[in-house]
Design brief:
This protein is mainly β. It has one domain: Neuraminidase (6 Propeller). It is built from three helices and 24 strands. It has a five-stranded antiparallel beta sheet with strand order 1-4-5-6-7. It has a four-stranded antiparallel beta sheet with strand order 8-9-10-11, with no helix packed on it. Strands 12-13-14-15 form a four-stranded antiparallel beta sheet, with no helix packed on it. Residues about 1-40 have low confidence and may be disordered.
Amino acid sequence: MREAKVQHYFCRPTLPPFLLGPIVLMLLLTMTAICCQVDETNVPNLYVYDEESVVTFLQKVGKDSSSLYELRRNSYGSHLYVYVRDEKKTEVLIVSSDGILKSLTAPASFAYLNDQEEFTVWFDEINEGLHFRDGSVRNVPSFGTFGVDISGNYFFIEVEQGLTEVYKTDEPERSLFLAKLTAREIFTSDKRIYLFDYDSVNYATHSLHDKIICQVFEKGDAQYELKEEVQIPRSSPGSSPFAVLDMDTRTGQVLVLDVRDPPFSFLTALYIFDLNTQIMTKVGNCDGAPLFLRSDIIAEACRSVGARKQ
């Protein structure tokens, strides 16, 4: 596992609210995985992938790299989902350390996989509704946000302003619980569901992002209950994005991007917020897509492909 100080910063393009779901790391991807460091201390399982490296990998396996669109991961951090898209179709390449395991044609322009590599939610135009495996179609209010967790098993819809309902993708009509926030990201573990909001109330009033709100719901005997609410503070308020990029639910580490507008762009940085200790630590600046993974999947896949060609 190589270690290197992160030198530049990563910023996601501006997206409509319904696309601000977990790990939608568009276009600015990586593929020479480097472990981020915090004050010379390695951040376990955090890798950053740049566009050049993923393009190199796709060329090695004979795939068209010109239509590279999106990078996601499975909930275990053992597989990467590389989305490539042209005018006719969206293809998802499932990549492990052994190379490309399989290629799937998505049922629509936007599609989400579960850990069993089945598409659970998809749509072409959000205003035409979300489609599910059981044939259900759910509408998203015009004002509402929408997102799917990286396991592909849970999703949320903002049903009223400031109110978000969470569902399972295999039971899209049955609400698990109602949360009093405008969810932007969702992560899940065996018994917990984590919802993140960038404090929409404060932004609507002052047009400033000054914190991220995390609500943690835990499954009880009969239903999910709000266990705690944690605030992730920003060093100083700003109108530019302050957003969650990924979360390691095993350790409670949340990866946060703090974007600063010119002339202070040099202050843009990645942070790790520990939900257990509630300590925020600066990772540094990075250029690429940061993800929590079990290993350097792309580097290992490149070596595997190279070995088979010898």
